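Weekly modeling sync, notes
Attendees: S.R. (lead), two postdocs, one rotation student

Agenda item 3: backlog of single-chain predictions. S.R. asked that every request posted to the team notebook include the full sequence so nobody has to chase files. The rotation student volunteered to paste the first one in as an example of the format we agreed on. Action items at the bottom.

Example entry:
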Amino acid sequence: MNSNGGRKPLGVGVIGLGMAVTPHARSLRDLSDRVSVKGVFARSRDKREAVAAEFGFPAVESVDAIIDDPEIGAVLLLTPPNVRTELVGRLAAAGKHILMEKPVERTTEAGEAIVAACHKAGVSLGIVFQHRFRPNSLKLKALLAEGTLGEIACVRLAVPWWRPQVGYYDQPGRGSLERDGGGLLISQAIHSLDLMLSLTGPVSEVQAVAGTSLIHQMETEDFVAGGMRFASGALGSFTGTTAAYPGASEQLGLDCVNGNVVLEAGELTVNWRDGRTETFTEDSGFGGGSDPMAFPHDWHMALIADFLDAIEAGRQPTSSGQEGLKVHRLIDAFLASSRERRAVTVAGTA
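Predicted structure, as returned to the notebook:
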């Protein structure tokens, strides 16, 4: 008997085989006792044949081949966000469960429509926020849930990353509203902001400044700094950029009543008020430099496993579409605050 309890592996299709495909493909291969990849598709024949050859997955000639295949019960949708809405509608109507790369869509309104379509069709919708599934992210969540750290008083989040102009922002559509829906916040810092919200609960109000630095030529922001008021009463700060050469790891600090915790590049340090210090290490990269894929695929595998568990249990995944909308609304508030030069209430928390 395998770890799937002897059940037939779930048929899976993959649409979109760009930069993000490698950790997903490795995860699917490692989860072969639970999933069977029935088809992978990209508009580029060369790309789909290369992925098929590298991972031993069958390539198909069209999206329709995946949508119409009755043996495919779930689809990994790894396309840019500007082609999501139509594809999600067709997949949901065909009864396919969907695990989709972040963001949910380019705008919160479009993301809400996607979430609603999946709910109406009765299919599970998961969003790829793999940082929630890093071992020490889970360790920190458990520590907070135990209550021994006490209430969170202050939150400090920093994302000092680097993305070059040549080879990254010079790519057509990169950092544009039309293709990506934005810049630093929706494309890079969204992961750290989502992880923060999963640990702290919602932000109720922000006051921020956002803009494009002299380092890059792009339509949207590569730098954001702001203050946050949390619904819990905690106060916080956020700074993020993709102009911090050569790039450093993101850091999340929580100052709690009974101690301080710092999560940086997967390493968790707990400084208890009684003088004890505990450190929990994790062997991983961080993707904050010029190679955005410099990290292991274990986090993706844990996320996909949770997605499969959700399908079997008839529930939404831990990293669901509704969860994804929370970080979208926070991003909207940051940008609105900078644009309007005032404090802004985060939608849904008033």
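Discussion: group reviewed the output briefly. Residues 133-300+326-345 form a domain with the Dihydrodipicolinate Reductase; domain 2 fold (CATH 3.30.360.10).
Action items: rotation student to repeat for the remaining queue; S.R. to check formatting next week.
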